[in-house]
Amino acid sequence: MIIQSGLQLVNLGNNRFNGSIPAHLCEKLSIIILDLSNNNFSGFLPMCLGRLIQLRAIDLTNNTITGDIPSSLGSLSQLRSLHLHNNKFQGNITVALHNLIDLETLDLGSNLLTCNIPPWIGKSLSKLRILNLQSNKLTGKIPTELCQINHLQHLNLANNSITGNIPHCFGNLTGMITSDFNFTYNGFGYEENVEAYIKGLQLKYTKTTRFLVSLDLSNNKIDGEIPDVLMNLISLKCLNLSRNLLSGHIPKSIGNIKSMESLDLSNNKLSGQIPPSMGNLIFLSYLNLSFNKLFGPIPVGNQFNTFNDPTMYEGNNGLCGKPLPRNCKESNLLYTHVGDGESKDSLHGLSWFYTGLVSVSLLDLWDLLVACTLLGFGG
After folding, report:
1. Pair 379, 234 in one domain
2. Quick check: is 308 in a domain?
3. Do 342 and 356 share a structural domain?
């Protein structure tokens, strides 16, 4: 591989290059964009890449590069976009990256990283718009410091082993509230790109990246309730909290997120009824509430009239109404599913239902006794 001197753009993506990344790249100090994505490069990433201090973007997506993320990358103070997606990087996320204060995209997804999410990402990388750490081996709780990233509009922590609750301060993520999609980084011959799992599909965003407003925490071990303040993220287009240990009710104010196009809360322990406000999500085209403990009638009208696939509700034995075959007129279907694991609110609803039945029966009996006495049948 021959690299000419004086080059600013090195775009060798989408080829079949293999072997190690050549160290003589480090001699081309004029390089601004380095795109080696979609090849078969392997081996370690050369430490000498830290010499390329003019770099604005590095894209090594879809190779088989291994080893630690070199600390020398922390010397690239002008870097705005770092894509190491789908390689075999391992170990910790090097703290040296905290020096990249102009970074707008950090994509370390689909690697073998084994650490907690570093709090310094939130403290130092305040200009991040895209943070993708999906499909690694990350553990520990979500650091509340991530809430300090005001411009963050796409956060993907899916497919890890993250524990704890969803931070309430996520409700203050300004990048998911406002409609300011103006990237400061745009040029130098590099087209930003990111992959995201939305509407049940793996999609690739390039020119439309600035419209990607998404929060994906799926397939972890996150527990607790869905914070009501999360409904403040009114510009959110995709919310995926599936395959966790979430309990409690779906927030009643979920209809506030009127930009929502894709919502997946499946495979949790959510209980209660489906909020009618969800019918206000007029752009919602993908919904999955399956395998929870939801009960009661499926709301009708508005957007619910477009949801005709019963699989989006399966695994909730207490739900009834279209498109399910269970008819809500059979009122016992609304409550017979309640078990020991239900929330206090659900049990309260159950006790209220049966208490009402008992109260009506006692009143009917009293009326009968009074009638019998007036007619002389009381003895």
Report:
1. no
2. yes
3. no
- Residues 264 and 376 occupy one common structural domain: no
Q: Report pLDDT digits (tens) over 62-112.
A: 999 999 999 999 999 999 999 999 999 999 999 999 999 999 999 999 999
Name, in order, each residue with C-beta under 8 angstroms of 250's C-beta and a sequence gap of 6 or more: 226, 265, 270, 272, 274, 275, 278, 289, 294
Closest CA to 132 of 74, 193, 176: 193
Residue 378: domain span: 348-379
**The pair of three-digit structure tokens given for residue 156, joined into one six-digit string:** 């993907």
Distance CA 200, CA 251 (A): 22
- Total tally of structural domains belonging to the chain: 2
Are 296 and 379 in the same domain? no
Question: In this structure, is residue 178 part of a structural domain?
Answer: yes
H-type alpha helices, the chain: 120-124, 344-374
Q: What is the pLDDT of residues 327-366, one digit of tens each?
A: 998 645 443 332 333 334 433 443 333 333 333 334 344 4
| Token pair 């770092």 in the structure block, residue | 82
Whether the per-residue pLDDT at 50 is higher than 90: the answer is: yes
Residue 68 covered by a domain: yes
Contact partners, residue 205, CB within 8 Å, separation at least 6: 193, 194, 195, 196, 211, 212
